[in-house]
Design brief:
single chain; alpha/beta; 13 helices; 20 strands; 24% strand; binds flavin-adenine dinucleotide
Length: 446
Amino acid sequence: MGDKIIKKPIVVVGAGLTGLVVAHELIKKGLSVIVIEKENQVGGLGRTLNYNGMKFDIGPHRFYSNNEEIVDYIYQILGSNLKEIKRSSLIYCQGRYFNWPLSFIDIFNLRFKTLFLILRDFVFNIKIVSIEPEVNYASYIKDRYGKTIYNIFFKNLSDKFLSCSADKIHWIWAKAGIEKAVIDERIYSRNLKDVALMLFRSKKFTKNYFYPINGVGMFADTLMSLIKDKGGVIKTSEEVIDIEIKDKQLTKVILKNEAILPSQVIWTAPLTILARILNYKELKLIYHPLQVFFLLFEEQDLLKKFQWCYYSDKNISFHRLSIPSCFSSNLAMPGKASIIIERSYDKSDEYSLSPLELKEKILNDLKEIRVVNKTAQIQDILIKRIDNAYPVYTLDFVEKKDDFLDYLKVFKNIKLAGRQGLFWYNNMDECIENALEVAEGINPLI
Ligand SMILES: Cc1cc2nc3c(=O)[nH]c(=O)nc-3n(C[C@H](O)[C@H](O)[C@H](O)COP(=O)(O)OP(=O)(O)OC[C@H]3O[C@@H](n4cnc5c(N)ncnc54)[C@H](O)[C@@H]3O)c2cc1C
């Protein structure tokens, strides 16, 4: 362990988008940088898998930002490989498809009883501004959107998404999730009144976002090339297994076969791993894993074309489906159609259903929701477990995180960044913004 010694570079742990943007900025400043990545590929959650001629992102991944500097930055990296795409996203609830953001026509698609109950909530139960302290995810949604929408959509979706009941989840998760689902901050959706207004207004807003022509992973792959061209080092399939500390400084980062003497460490991997390495008491923060099915069909079997859709109904075994070719035609082979299914890693499945049984259940669900035709068969399948897909905002996550951050304050040369390092439900644009700030704040003289 730690035979070869490399001296005084800045060590970036994790080659997701955050780690790569930080590394690229530091290299541009003329600093020496080594990036350590556990996987055999860079990009983290924002990578694209190549599998038997198909290209798959880890679920739908589009770039969007209200900050023009960030959009410019993404353009600078990708140039003409970045395309602007019109959004086509749906939600599926009570066996029916609705546009998201909602359009006026969707009212007529609601069951009559559901429409009546929503209107009743609207008149009697909705708080336009909540003055009481927020309690949890469930109360946050019920207060703003009413019991009916909560029961038929949000409750089931959160059970399926995080395998955790909505009253055990912090209200910040609800706020963050809704903002991310709408993405355009001009389309307010703070409560049922806003949603009602959305029915009349959403058409006026552009619902475009950006996407690299060969998959979201192109952004990370391009950054990797730029970093390497400028002399930076990226070590994939390498893990930080230990860290030595002296005089409140991280003095040695230990990998399987070598050790690095860092000037500074930028940590973008999960906080729980850092806590374990530093022998902090057990850090009870939860990162939820995701089970992703990448499926191949004959093109003629595909009945629907949209980029992504949320499925809240309990009988459907997954919570989101996306169709890569609707992001870029380069992602599919001619004559074939690929589909990405995301489902929560429910422990009970692992014991009760074999992968083959799950595959059958998913195929039947795809037929029921009318995405593929009744005779369709899966031509090829890749199943992946994605660890650390979501930071779970349990009711006490803020205190647990703050305790650990307090403990870390004594160490002079470590900085946390990114979705995992901050334990924050960041999107890619927010990760880029955070990475640029972190790189800006690095003092080259330390
Ligand atoms: C299903 C899904 C869909 C999403 N869709 C969108 C979207 O449409 N738009 C959007 O903007 N954002 C989206 N996001 C969020 C986006 O993927 C993340 O915000 C972003 O990719 C996080 O980048 P990161 O570098 O901070 O973290 P990560 O990508 O998680 O990178 C952390 C890296 O650290 C590595 N690592 C872990 N442990 C170690 C170790 N011990 N040593 C070395 N390396 C280690 C990991 O392998 C990983 O590569 C989505 C996320 C998910 C899960």
